[in-house]
Amino acid sequence: MRVLVVEDDPGIASGLSASLRQAGYAVDICASLNAAWLSLAVEPFDLMLLDLGLPDGEGLDLLARLRRLPPPAAGRDTLPRPDMPVLIMTARDGVNDRISGLDGGADDYIVKPFDANELLARLRAMLRRAGGRRNPVIEHGDLVIDPAAHTVLRAGAPVTLGGKEFALMLALMQARPQVLSKSRLESALYSFGEGLESNAIEVHIHHLRRKLGESVIKTVRGVGYFVPQDVATPVAKATR
């Protein structure tokens, strides 16, 4: 999952980046509305954390601009994404401020200072709603993924995944049975400037298949990867 943090305070931005990266998110920081809009126009972020008072204007103006965009045509991905989940994070704690933020298109609103674990829980809830899920865990046959605990079970046995492996599997599970291209997966897992080997996705897919079974992730040659909607019998035992 890739997060855009729009925050002009370097200390707050750095702390948020550290907490989000530790939780498995790819993170990009923008300190202005203009930089944020340019980023949204070139990368498919999964959600945005938005401060209100920024050097070049109000965060609500960026939010309004985003929400006014037309919905994408069927079968097409457009950028920026008008339906992207947005959480406002601000020191403005008045009732009217919260009402304006939520009525202005925000999916959630949190007041600074806030606890990092509460923020992460709110992000998970936003992603569940965006994906049309109610259950906090994702189940697919005998595979169970818990985004909050960062755990994976296969047939009841724990499976140890690396950070990028977990993020990749989570992205595929949340999109199933949609096919995700290699470039889309790279965008979800890696932020601007982060080192990326040309075969990184293929290597992660290989490791996931070895740990979870060959049948879990399918390849559409020349297109991308997907988790099939129908559950297949595993062909490999989960590794502890």
TrEMBL record:
Recorded hits in PANTHER family, A to Z, give:
REGULATOR OF RPOS, TRANSCRIPTIONAL REGULATORY PROTEIN QSEB
Q: Where in the cell is it found?
A: Cytoplasm
Instruction: Output this protein's name.
Output: Two-component system OmpR family response regulator/two-component system response regulator QseB
In this protein, which residues make up the domain named OmpR/PhoB-type?
135-229
Keywords of the record, alphabetical order, are: Cytoplasm, DNA-binding, Phosphoprotein, Transcription, Transcription regulation, Two-component regulatory system
Organism this protein belongs to: Hydrogenophaga laconesensis
Post-translational modification 4-aspartylphosphate, affected residues = D51
- One matching Pfam family is Trans_reg_C
Q: Which residues bind DNA?
A: 135-229
Q: List the SUPFAM superfamilies.
A: CheY-like
**Occurrences of domain Response regulatory (ranges):** 2-127
Read off the InterPro entries from this record: CheY-like_superfamily, OmpR/PhoB-type_DNA-bd, Sig_transdc_resp-reg_receiver, WalR-like, WH-like_DNA-bd_sf
- Report the superkingdom from the record: Bacteria
